[in-house]
Amino acid sequence: MRGVFVAVALVILFFHLLPLDTLPRRWSPPDLLVALAFAWSVRRADFVPPLLIAAVMLLADLLMQRPPGLWALLVLLGSEFLKSRLPASRETSFLGEWFAVAVIIVGITLLNRMILGILAVEHAHIALLMIQVIMTIAVYPIVVLLSQTLLGVRRLSAADAETMGARL
Fold this sequence. Notes:
transmembrane helix, membrane, mainly alpha, 0% strand, Arp2/3 complex 21 kDa subunit ARPC3, Rod shape-determining protein MreD
């Protein structure tokens, strides 16, 4: 499944980099890589180890010409935070999970903007950034649904976790 995660991430990057429109857009598309990494981190943490998330996000930073490593580090920290709450999230409803992921997305986005501002790095307009955050939060349930139905990335039940030897 780690290979599947990398393959899906590469497909997302491929379609993101396609030059379909040469005019500047007035809206910003959702960050599907972040939604995918967070969905898989919450659902099955063993499918996305930290080095894999860091490598995929660093590749995305380099291909999308963002400051290398900053967004990758923030996404890695966000996914590890979500993984650390994983035992508590087994009893959480999907709305609770969605809220937690939304808070993390907003937090890492604001932290990224603040660090770029302190370092005087040119960054996108705040309106575009907020549109991207809202769209990423809105697309998260779709990413979870597609991951669950097409790829079989489901939460472990208590019985499954016990048979695999995982702590609850």
